Sequence to fold (228 residues):
Amino acid sequence: MSDIQFTIDGKECTAGKGQTIVDAARENGVYIPTLCNYQGMKPAGTCRMCTVKVGGRTMAACTTPAAPGMVVESNTPEIEDMRKAIVEMLFVEGNHMCPTCEKSGNCELQALGYRYTMMVPRFPYLWPVRDVDASSPKIYLDRNRCVQCLRCVRGIVTADGKHVFGLVKRGNKTIIDIDGELAAGLSEEQAKKAMDQCPVGAILRKEVGFTVPIGKRKYDTKPIGSSL
Ligand code: SF4
Ligand code: FES
Fold:
């Protein structure tokens, strides 16, 4: 039930009790960019792409519930530049190699790069040394492209509730790891789900590629956010 009234950039919006600003915005036809957020999955608030201002304070719209009378600023030059800076940071702190990526055209980070007309990032490239894990029969894990959104950790769980992906190490050494035994038991469907839920090309299915040709993929035809 939509019993909460609030505004986003002056537009009157409604939300259900407990509904996050991001979810309510979508239902009211307002696009707020996201990356770690995935519809239907508990939000983690890790990437800050959805940054908005509420009462002059910056907040993550994916973890903040809409409240009565809330005044949300989203599409302002200052906030859009913060979001562009986040996209640039994610590009410089990994090795994304878009032209050789199977996820090109279906990648949310790449699509956000286009949305924010990212040219030369304002931050220096870090060129981190990251390894890949090709030991699982159905999945290829390329940590070069991982943005640590935790969608795989939150979303890929075995029937008895065990997490196939997890975070290991600390600080800037933190990486995504995969449980070899559990990964070996993934069904075709789960392997596809893992690839689909990864917003970038860090999780790729083995032995399947280019089922949709470049030029016909999701963001090749429509820019991210344009469906709202
Ligand atoms: S592997 Fe993909 S889904 Fe998992 S944390 Fe990295 S970017 Fe996110
Ligand atoms: S989408 Fe909200 S913090 Fe990542």
Q: What stands out?
A: The beta strands are 2-8, 11-16, 51-54, 57-60, 71-73, 132-133, 139-142, 165-168, 175-178, 203-205. Helices lie at 21-27, 77-92, 108-115, 151-155, 180-184, 188-197, 218-221. The chain has a mean pLDDT of 95. Residues 146-152, 165, 176, 197-200, 202-203 surround iron/sulfur cluster (ligand 1) (CB under 6 Å).
